[in-house]
Amino acid sequence: MQVKVFDSSLEKFIEGLEKAAIAKVLRSIDLLEKFGSDLQMPHSRKIKNNLFELRVRGQQEIRIFYTFCQTQIILLHGFIKKSQKIPKKEIDLALQKMAGLD
To answer: Which of 5, 8, 28, 68 is least enclosed by beta carbons within 10 angstroms?
Structure first.
């Protein structure tokens, strides 16, 4: 499946990470591209409806929300996870971007 980035804010987020973290993010995106909807825990998890999170583990817990749109995977939003629960504002932002796809 082809992976596309929704907007430049996600690219800037990834570029702002440490080099080791960038490498892990890119590896995770490669896994997502290769396995698509078959990618499961610990790399990917369903959040709600058609919203999923790409889980990048390491010194920083990085999460990238994505969705499937026809034959593409759209990367919507990324953030560094600092608590057990995903902040509602991060999910809302990803859902808002997802609504912009339609």
So the answer is: 8
Token code pair at residue 22: 């960038």
What one-character-per-residue DSSP string does 57-101 give? -SSSEEEEEEEEETTEEEEEEEEEE-SSSPPHHHHHHHHHHHHTT
Map residue 6 onto helix, strand or coil: coil
Query: Over 90: is that where the pLDDT of 91 sits?
Result: yes
Question: Mean per-residue pLDDT for 36-40?
Answer: 93
Helix or strand or coil: residue 48?
strand
C-alpha separations of 22 from 16, 18, 68 in Å: 9, 6, 23
Rounded CA-CA distance 39/59 in Å is 22
Residue 49 to residues 57, 62, 87, Cα–Cα distance (Å): 24, 21, 17
Cis peptide upstream of residue 87 (ω within 30 degrees of 0): no
In this prediction, residue 61 carries a pLDDT of: 94
